[in-house]
């Protein structure tokens, strides 16, 4: 035996590294950079939105939960800025065309919107994770797991207030 356990199948459970052709690499990096810019804009929008939810939260416990999520969103924006700078040697330029903030009609509607936004962010970050250079994957993984944690919290808040 060669030291690898293959389980019941005759192949390893991982895909071997296959070099990406240069033209595909550049295309993937452009996608990653565009998605990181969008993520920075979205994280900023989320910060503003969550400030509104914090002020509308009916209990101190709910305010603390949303505040912890807000803190994570600030951290994510900072991490994405650092990654962008390391990849490009430039500071990220935001389009300046932020979507206007619309206050939700109710606290429950805000929680529902926040839950869906967290799940959409996770999908976007999964694409970033797939195409970003390996040395940044741990950071993206941390952000992704935070987004899943936030979705769980919002699910709990939604069911608690429904």
UniProtKB/TrEMBL annotation:
Sequence ranges assigned to domain Rubrerythrin diiron-binding in this UniProt record: 36-156
Q: Which residues form the signal peptide?
A: none
Question: How is this protein named in the record?
Answer: Rubrerythrin diiron-binding domain-containing protein
The record's section on CDD domains has: Ferritin_like
Q: Which Gene3D superfamilies match?
A: IL-4 antagonist (De novo design) like domain
* Parts of the chain that traverse the membrane: none
A Gene Ontology molecular-function term?
metal ion binding
């Amino acid at each position: 035996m060669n030291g690898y356990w293959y389980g019941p199948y005759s192949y390893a459970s991982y895909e071997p590294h296959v070099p990406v052709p240069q033209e595909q690499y550049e295309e993937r990096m452009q996608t990653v950079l565009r998605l990181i810019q969008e993520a920075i804009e979205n994280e900023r929008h989320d910060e503003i939105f969550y400030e509104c939810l914090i002020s509308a939260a009916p209990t101190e416990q709910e305010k603390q939960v949303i505040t912890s999520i807000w803190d994570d969103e600030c951290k994510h924006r900072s991490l994405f800025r650092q990654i962008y700078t390391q990849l490009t040697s430039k500071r990220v330029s935001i389009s300046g065309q932020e979507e206007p903030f619309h206050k939700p009609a109710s606290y429950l509607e805000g929680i529902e919107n926040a839950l869906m936004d967290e799940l959409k962010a996770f999908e976007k970050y999964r694409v970033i994770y797939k195409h970003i250079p390996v040395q940044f994957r741990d950071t993206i993984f941390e952000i992704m797991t935070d987004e899943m944690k936030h979705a769980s919290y919002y699910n709990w808040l939604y069911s608690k207030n429904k």
